[in-house]
Amino acid sequence: MCRNIKPLFNFNPPATDEEIHDAALQFVRKLSGTNKPSKRNEVAFESAVLSIANCARELLNSLETSQPPRDREEVAVKARARSATRFA
Protein backbone atom coordinates (compact mmCIF):
# COMPACT_ATOMS: atom_id res chain seq x y z
CA MET A 1 0.00 0.00 0.00
CA CYS A 2 2.42 2.66 1.14
CA ARG A 3 6.16 2.05 0.88
CA ASN A 4 6.94 4.43 3.73
CA ILE A 5 5.07 2.37 6.30
CA LYS A 6 7.55 -0.08 7.78
CA PRO A 7 6.88 -3.13 9.95
CA LEU A 8 7.11 -2.11 13.60
CA PHE A 9 6.48 -5.38 15.43
CA ASN A 10 9.12 -7.56 17.09
CA PHE A 11 12.10 -5.24 16.98
CA ASN A 12 14.76 -4.59 19.54
CA PRO A 13 14.44 -1.82 20.70
CA PRO A 14 10.63 -1.67 20.33
CA ALA A 15 8.91 0.86 18.08
CA THR A 16 8.82 4.37 19.48
CA ASP A 17 5.74 6.56 19.71
CA GLU A 18 7.26 8.76 17.00
CA GLU A 19 7.61 5.81 14.60
CA ILE A 20 4.02 4.77 15.25
CA HIS A 21 2.80 8.35 14.74
CA ASP A 22 4.75 8.60 11.45
CA ALA A 23 3.19 5.36 10.19
CA ALA A 24 -0.29 6.58 11.17
CA LEU A 25 0.37 9.89 9.41
CA GLN A 26 1.41 8.10 6.21
CA PHE A 27 -1.70 5.93 6.40
CA VAL A 28 -4.02 8.93 6.80
CA ARG A 29 -2.23 10.77 3.99
CA LYS A 30 -2.76 7.78 1.72
CA LEU A 31 -6.44 7.45 2.63
CA SER A 32 -7.19 11.15 2.30
CA GLY A 33 -5.13 11.64 -0.84
CA THR A 34 -3.42 14.71 0.56
CA ASN A 35 -0.13 15.44 2.31
CA LYS A 36 -1.43 18.49 4.11
CA PRO A 37 -5.12 19.00 4.82
CA SER A 38 -6.90 22.28 4.27
CA LYS A 39 -7.56 24.44 7.34
CA ARG A 40 -11.14 23.23 7.23
CA ASN A 41 -10.09 19.57 7.48
CA GLU A 42 -7.08 19.96 9.77
CA VAL A 43 -8.87 18.89 12.96
CA ALA A 44 -10.36 15.77 11.37
CA PHE A 45 -7.00 14.88 9.83
CA GLU A 46 -5.10 15.18 13.13
CA SER A 47 -7.84 13.35 15.00
CA ALA A 48 -7.58 10.46 12.55
CA VAL A 49 -3.78 10.34 12.92
CA LEU A 50 -4.02 10.20 16.72
CA SER A 51 -6.77 7.59 16.64
CA ILE A 52 -4.85 5.33 14.26
CA ALA A 53 -1.62 5.79 16.23
CA ASN A 54 -3.42 4.70 19.41
CA CYS A 55 -4.90 1.66 17.67
CA ALA A 56 -1.48 0.76 16.24
CA ARG A 57 0.16 1.04 19.67
CA GLU A 58 -2.58 -1.19 21.14
CA LEU A 59 -2.04 -3.73 18.37
CA LEU A 60 1.74 -3.78 18.78
CA ASN A 61 1.39 -4.19 22.55
CA SER A 62 -1.03 -7.11 22.21
CA LEU A 63 0.80 -9.11 19.52
CA GLU A 64 2.80 -12.14 20.62
CA THR A 65 5.51 -14.15 18.90
CA SER A 66 7.87 -16.99 19.70
CA GLN A 67 10.55 -15.50 17.43
CA PRO A 68 13.41 -13.51 18.92
CA PRO A 69 13.28 -9.75 18.29
CA ARG A 70 14.90 -8.57 15.07
CA ASP A 71 17.79 -6.14 15.15
CA ARG A 72 16.85 -2.78 13.58
CA GLU A 73 20.31 -2.13 12.15
CA GLU A 74 20.51 -5.59 10.57
CA VAL A 75 17.12 -5.12 8.88
CA ALA A 76 18.14 -1.64 7.67
CA VAL A 77 21.35 -3.00 6.12
CA LYS A 78 19.38 -5.66 4.25
CA ALA A 79 16.88 -3.04 3.03
CA ARG A 80 19.68 -0.80 1.75
CA ALA A 81 21.24 -3.76 -0.07
CA ARG A 82 17.89 -4.60 -1.73
CA SER A 83 17.45 -0.96 -2.69
CA ALA A 84 20.95 -0.75 -4.17
CA THR A 85 20.32 -3.86 -6.23
CA ARG A 86 16.92 -2.64 -7.37
CA PHE A 87 17.97 0.88 -8.36
CA ALA A 88 21.55 0.19 -9.52
Note the topology.
Blueprint: E1 11-12, H1 17-32, H2 42-62, E2 70-71, H3 72-87
Parallel strand pairs: 1-2
Q: Would you mind describing this structure in some detail?
A:
The structure is a single chain. This protein is mainly α and 88 residues long. Helix content is 60%, strand content 5%. A two-stranded parallel ribbon has the order 1-2.
Structurally, the number of domains stands at 1
Oligomer designation: single chain
Q: Biggest sheet, in brief?
A: 2 strands, parallel
Q: What is the rounded distance between the termini?
A: 24 Å
Helical element count? 3
- Beta-strand percentage range: under 5%
Helix content: 55-70%
Query: What is the element string, with H for helices and E for strands?
Result: EHHEH
**Strand runs, count:** 2
Alpha carbon gyration radius: 15 Å
Largest sheet: spatial strand order:
1-2
- Outline the low-pLDDT stretches: none
Q: Return the average pLDDT rounded to an integer.
A: 91
The 3D shape can be described as flat
Q: Given the helix and strand composition, which structural class is it?
A: mainly alpha
Task: Give me some keywords for this one.
mainly alpha
In short, what is this structure?
The chain is mostly helical.
